[in-house]
């Protein structure tokens, strides 16, 4: 179902249309709350970035538990821990697949039955 107020182009018209994107107009930036003049921001409760022009979206609260108020060191440490956990879980889930034949010989069973444990581990990732 097409909207009556929207102009639709055919495939021929689309290929001839210029693919240039205009710069974002400054008026739209100020109205959208992305950038704000310093004079216009004074007297408001909006928090600005260190450059003094960029409005912080979302606005941080005064709560020290707010992640937007955490130090850069704490944010990077949490990122490192999350990345390390993701890496080690992938590594350890597949670590048992290399010695499948040796495990089968040790336990006097087929490599197929030994591989079931690894398959279930990878399935649960």
TrEMBL record:
Residues 1-20 are annotated as: Disordered. This is Major facilitator superfamily (MFS) profile domain-containing protein. It comes from Fusarium torreyae.
């Amino acid at each position: 179902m097409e909207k009556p107020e929207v102009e639709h182009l055919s495939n021929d018209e689309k290929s001839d249309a210029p693919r240039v994107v205009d710069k974002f107009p400054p008026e739209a930036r100020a109205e959208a709350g992305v950038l704000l003049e310093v004079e216009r921001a004074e007297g408001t409760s909006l928090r600005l970035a260190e450059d003094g022009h960029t409005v912080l979206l979302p606005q941080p609260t005064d709560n020290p538990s707010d992640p937007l108020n955490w130090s850069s060191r704490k944010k990077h440490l949490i990122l490192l821990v999350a990345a390390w956990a993701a890496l080690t879980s992938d590594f350890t889930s597949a670590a048992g697949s290399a010695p499948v034949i040796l495990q089968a010989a040790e336990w006097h069973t087929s490599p197929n039955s030994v591989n079931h444990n690894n398959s279930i581990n990878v399935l649960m990732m």
